[in-house]
Amino acid sequence: MLLIAAALIALAAGTLYAWSLYIIPLENEFGWNRSQTSLTFTITLFFFTLGMFTGGALIDKLGHRQIIWLGGVIGALGFYLASFADSLNWLYITYGVMAGFGLGFAYVVPLSTAPKSLPTKSGAVAGFITMCFGLGNLVLGTFVLARVIEGSGWKSALQLTACIFLIVTLASAFFVRPRLPGQDANAPKQTSNEWGYSMKQMLCTSTFWIYTVWIVSCQAGGLMVIGHIVPFAQEVGIVAAAAALAMGIFSAANSLGRPLIGMVFDRCGHRFSMFITPLFMMVGLAILGWGTPLFGFPALVAGAVIVAICFGGIFAINVPLILKFFGARHYAANLGLQGFTVFLGGFFGPQIAGMVKAQTGEYTYSFVIGIVLVLIGLIFGLLVKAPARI
């Protein structure tokens, strides 16, 4: 039940990425431009990360169930109040700050609890949970909310999102219980065998900073291109429908890569998975950048699938690696802090690609810079060593 409840919370939290569904309806109704509406998602991502950090830091004081409930209420209230938005500031505060913070606050609990309960399969479990988070936009966004927006409008969709998130978090929280391997689910929590670095101790290790370079470089390098696949494809002569199809295939492969690379982590260890993931990502970026202009759609799909699997795998590596390197005692807090590196890579990667395109007029240099960034990550991945247990 723990895994099912964790998956449901992750699916509900994945509505974070459904923001793109609201952009055009809001712009059409209020006359806002793309930079103004895009800022909403940037704010949402930041406060989602802040919510993960805060929830992880408070989890031992407030309890797992209470964190999920509180996150569910804050997130649902944010979505509901956003349905009454008639100004950008109101939208930024409700959808960006409140909904973003609430989603992250609740999501950190299943993300940190499930892998810790099954340490020998932590990679596969983390991959499954993060896959569910990625599928949230597809399951709830594409199949549900998009139809509600088309039939009843964006306000109804936001109110439905609030109801779904509130119901899922309130109900699933009863089944997300921290448990050590071999411990009965109804037994009192035991922490005597747990070890781990505190957040301050983790920040003082070279391992944390070397690993941070790895994840930020790999993420930024991949996202430089991922966020621009559709316009790049159209630039080299691929029709819009085919480019959109490639993006859909990318999303599916991204979700598949999370449990796949998670299983590689469990079977082959962190060193192999941290090497093979950026290596194949560079291959995929090269196929995208130089194969697509020559071979068209087949190369676009091949490159997108390779990059997507590896990019999704980064998230599957991140969750169990923090547990393996820095222990279970302060795992939720440490994982929440590590979430800021995910935000950094996600923010700077697309921004760099956009600036390079604006300056040069083409995407070729974006692929070059992306490959270089991922190469830096690969090198730093070889330097990562597990710190001593304390």
UniProtKB/TrEMBL annotation:
<feature type="transmembrane region" description="Helical">
    <location>
        <begin position="90"/>
        <end position="111"/>
    </location>
</feature>
<feature type="transmembrane region" description="Helical">
    <location>
        <begin position="208"/>
        <end position="230"/>
    </location>
</feature>
<keyword id="KW-0472">Membrane</keyword>
<feature type="transmembrane region" description="Helical">
    <location>
        <begin position="123"/>
        <end position="145"/>
    </location>
</feature>
<feature type="transmembrane region" description="Helical">
    <location>
        <begin position="335"/>
        <end position="353"/>
    </location>
</feature>
<feature type="transmembrane region" description="Helical">
    <location>
        <begin position="268"/>
        <end position="291"/>
    </location>
</feature>
<keyword id="KW-1133">Transmembrane helix</keyword>
<dbReference type="InterPro" id="IPR050327">
    <property type="entry name" value="Proton-linked_MCT"/>
</dbReference>
<dbReference type="InterPro" id="IPR036259">
    <property type="entry name" value="MFS_trans_sf"/>
</dbReference>
<feature type="transmembrane region" description="Helical">
    <location>
        <begin position="157"/>
        <end position="176"/>
    </location>
</feature>
<feature type="transmembrane region" description="Helical">
    <location>
        <begin position="67"/>
        <end position="84"/>
    </location>
</feature>
<dbReference type="GO" id="GO:0022857">
    <property type="term" value="F:transmembrane transporter activity"/>
</dbReference>
<feature type="transmembrane region" description="Helical">
    <location>
        <begin position="42"/>
        <end position="60"/>
    </location>
</feature>
<dbReference type="InterPro" id="IPR011701">
    <property type="entry name" value="MFS"/>
</dbReference>
<feature type="transmembrane region" description="Helical">
    <location>
        <begin position="236"/>
        <end position="256"/>
    </location>
</feature>
<feature type="transmembrane region" description="Helical">
    <location>
        <begin position="365"/>
        <end position="384"/>
    </location>
</feature>
<dbReference type="Pfam" id="PF07690">
    <property type="entry name" value="MFS_1"/>
</dbReference>
<keyword id="KW-0812">Transmembrane</keyword>
<feature type="domain" description="Major facilitator superfamily (MFS) profile">
    <location>
        <begin position="1"/>
        <end position="389"/>
    </location>
</feature>
<dbReference type="InterPro" id="IPR020846">
    <property type="entry name" value="MFS_dom"/>
</dbReference>
<protein>
    <submittedName>
        <fullName>Oxalate/formate antiporter</fullName>
    </submittedName>
</protein>
<feature type="transmembrane region" description="Helical">
    <location>
        <begin position="297"/>
        <end position="323"/>
    </location>
</feature>
